[in-house]
Amino acid sequence: MRLYRLIRYDIKNGISGRSYLYAPAAILCSVFTVSFYMSVQSMNIEDEKFTIVNLFLYFFEGKEPFSPELGNAFVFPVVWLFIFLYSAFLTLNYPYSNLTGFGIQAITRTKSRNLWWLSKCCWVFLATCLYFAVWYIVSLLLSVILHIDLSFQYSERICALLLDMQLQPMQPGSVWMSLVVLPVMISVAVNLLQLCLGLFFDRMYCFIVSAVILFASTYFQTPLLIGNFAMVKRSVIYQENGMDVKQGIIASVLVIILSIGAGIWRIRKYDILKKS
Amino acid sequence: MIKLENVSKNIKGKTVIDGITQTFHGGITYGLKGINGSGKTMLMRLVSGLIYPTSGRIEIRGKELGKDMSFPDDLGLLIENPAFLDSYTGFDNLWLLATLNNRAGKTEVKEALLRTGLDPEDRRKYKKYSLGMKQRLGIAAAIMEKPQILILDEPLNALDTEGVALFDKIIREEQERGTLIILSCHEEKKLHEYADVILTLENGKIKDREEL
Amino acid sequence: MTVKCIKNEMRKALFSRAALITYLLSFSIVIYHTVTKAQIYNEFYAAYQAGDGAGNPMITSVSLFFNWLGADVTSFATSVFFFLLPIIAVMPYGWSLAGEIRSGYTKNIISRIPRKSYFFSKYFAGFVSGALAVMIPLLLSFLLAALFLPALRMENIYPYGTIGEKSMWAALYYSNPFLYSMLYILLDGVFAGLTACISIVLAFFIRSRVTVVLAPFFLMLLLDYIDMNVLPGWEISPVKFLQALPVVNERSGVIDFVMFLIFAAFTLGVLLYKERKYEAL
After folding, report:
1. What are B57-91's pLDDT values in tens digits?
2. pLDDT (tens digit, 9 = 90+) per residue, B103-162?
3. Are strands B180-184 and B149-153 parallel, antiparallel or unpaired?
4. Same domain membership, residue B154 and residue B69
5. Nearest Cβ partner for C74 among A73, A76, A81
6. Which position among C5, C63, C74, C279 has the lowest Cβ density within 10 Å, counted as fewest Cβ atoms?
């Protein structure tokens, strides 16, 4: 019951009270959607079904496996990084700014540091889900306005020409997993790791760690860098020896559990002092 | 009610509390006295569970703080500058806190605001409050749930004459209720007026204990 | 009075804990890069010796001028350094004005010295700290790489490390690569300094230290997006054009200059406006 009250307080304080932070996400999504739509239009590809799956593939394509051959400069996938880094930024400030200010009153009333921590973990999960929900809903709305087809099918030609992707045929289940479930889970995992690190280091350095993990994921193809699982171009639907969806779910769950566990251990001894 | 046994606290290599052994009994008002940096606020943070001792133990009603419980049950706290949410009114700020443990209803929240001289119907947001009003709101937050333990760090900061008079009344009422009160105040006259026992701190130790 | 103010602000900028941590971060990237490059060179040289000079070893592929942090556009270290450049530039001091406005410290200062002196000192110190935060690691990388790698002039007959003749300072790259590298370090420093100044002036509008530090970073990402999707071929993204070799397109001196003007105009413009209108509430 107390956890429920704390979560309710965090939703009111950390989400409703900071709803303005979701506006840039909506704006960015609109910009990316319209830009991609215009690129498709400029290709003059007739008789091709431009669908919302094509749009999501654009958002989450990431980067194909990179080899630093001579003359092959590394160009990072800015759209993918923007999506995940803004998610990390969104969940960065609230938990610890809350703890050293108004939050002292809240935490002493709930009388449990573990509950405070679990409540913040729930808040990170909810805030991340809401962020991606904003992203998906705005894309859906714009798709309706721009007459982009809302189906699980996608145009292979658009993928090949604009995204440089030749994909295996995808079942609706694969679409959901690769373009909805995994990106959200990976983002939740990264954000929870960032939250946990905030108990040890200053928030800015925690963001840098998140940024480096995500950036390194775009450079190196390895299951140790979990960002790989959220990139379509690193997955089995793009390449034979790509990242497996099941592995991705296990990896993100592992990171989530370890982050929550480490946080529970650390919060017990954490000094709640006024920080400058 | 609160027992400190040889409690020490180091922060970044500096000893801020040094081997304090002290029992705080219910129904008594303890005044903490000492120069800036003597350890008054740190002692209050230790007793309220915001920080834990580096060595020693703190027991509250037989339970150890940091092991058997994270925070004391039934605590009202005003530590350093009060901090509330800028975009909420005074009432909304307190109500948000009250809903966390459901120990105070809207009536109690309004009563706490009135006791500190604030208007429960005031629609001004917290960011528009003067320093004195912010302090009054901090006191209201500490007393609204009628706690058994009240910890007040420099409660008279920024209060005008009327505010101080209201605070005097609050202290008397809390004492009549049998609350354990630990407070610090730079005005020695006021400290003597409120406290039953005055503890003088120096370099993190209790240098002197005076029963009034 | 302004000179004294500048001295104070410079001391805060260069000797803070945040500056130390920033340098530690960037130096670790430099050391990681140098170690990997030295290893690659050792392997190359061993193979070159074992090969008895047969075939074309393309020896300039291990040249210092192609393999220091600023030019090694294929490596992770270079990519992550320039990706984090907006944060590296801002972290030592860019948040300072936001913190002082929030805490009310500005009241202590502007009641003693003219606003102009204070805000311009902040701007100057921000610029210098941002510039140094990027220039010092790049210079260090160059010097460390020079300990291990041969300083061979690049040749445009090979398919790597080439710059198109219309690219900015292309002739210099082939004739005097040392000067080219130093000029690029200077260019990077100037833009890093201006990036830190963006944070400084944003403090007039944003109180959150975290937001003030990260706003230039997201701005750079946005510029990169515009560069890739809206204005392809223009290379307006500082994350790309600050690297000493082309990443996607050839660099244009005109575009670099225009970007410099935009950054400078924005930051100075806001500063000049706000220093007259600022009220310490």
Report:
1. 999 999 999 888 888 888 899 987 788 888 889 99
2. 899 999 999 999 999 999 999 999 899 999 999 999 999 999 999 999 999 999 999 999
3. parallel
4. yes
5. A73
6. C279
Structural domain contains residue B82: no
Asked whether residue B79 is assigned to any structural domain, the reply reads no
Are B119 and B156 in a shared domain?
Answer: no
Tokens of B82: 């009060």
The ipTM is: 0.94
The DSSP secondary-structure symbol of C240 reads H
pLDDT for C280 equals 66
Does the residue B191 lie in any domain? Answer: yes
Residues B166, B203: one domain?
yes
Domain of B135?
A: 87-146
A205 touches chain C (CB under 8 A): yes
Q: Is A220 on the interface with C (CB under 8 A)?
A: yes
- Report which of B26, B54, B28, B25 is spatially closest to residue B42, judged by C-alpha positions: B54
* Contact at CB, C76 and A220, closer than 8 angstroms: yes
B93 and B70 co-located in one domain? no
Regions in chain A scoring below 70 on pLDDT = 1, 46-47, 70-71, 274-276
B142 in the same domain as B157: no
Q: Radius of gyration over alpha carbons of chain B, in Å? A: 17
The reply to whether residue A13 touches residue B96, judged by beta carbons under 8 angstroms, is yes
In this prediction, residue C107 has a pLDDT band, given cuts at 50, 70 and 90, of: confident
* End-of-domain residue from the set B146, B171, B187: B146
- Whole-Å CA distances, A54 to A274, B55, C20: 48, 61, 45
Total count of domains within chain B:
2
Model pTM? 0.89
B60 shares its domain with B106: no
Residue C281 has pLDDT above 70, yes or no: no
What subunits make at least 3 CB pairs under 8 angstroms with C? A
**DSSP symbols for chain A:** -HHHHHHHHHIIIIIGGGGGGGHHHHHHHHHHHHHHHHHHHHTT-TT---BHHHHHHHHH---------TT------HHHHHHHHHHHHHTTSHHHHHHHTTHHHHHHHHT-HHHHHHHHHHHHHHHHHHHHHHHHHHHHHHHHHTT-B-SS---HHHHHHHS---PPP--HHHHHIIIIIHHHHHHHHHHHHHHHHTTTS-HHHHHHHHHHHHHHHHH---TTSGGGGG-GGGBTTTSTT-B-HHHHHHHHHHHHHHHHHHHHHHHTT-------
* CB nearest B48 (choices: A9, A108, A110): A108
Q: Which residues of A touch C245 (CB under 8 A)?
A: 73
Q: Which residue of B has its CA nearest to A272?
A: B50
Residue C230 has what DSSP assignment? I
Chains that touch B (3 or more CB pairs under 8 A): A
Shared-domain flag, residues B165 and B65? yes
Nearest to C198 by CA among C255, C253, C137, C259: C259
The alpha carbon of residue A266 is apart from the nearest alpha carbon of chain C, in Å, by 23
The CATH number for B31's domain is 3.40.50.300
Are both B28 and B92 inside the same structural domain? no
Q: Which residue among B122, B146, B170 closes a domain?
A: B146
- Helix, strand or coil for residue C260? helix
- Which one is predicted more confidently, C188 or A3? C188
For residue B81, tell me if it sits in a domain.
no
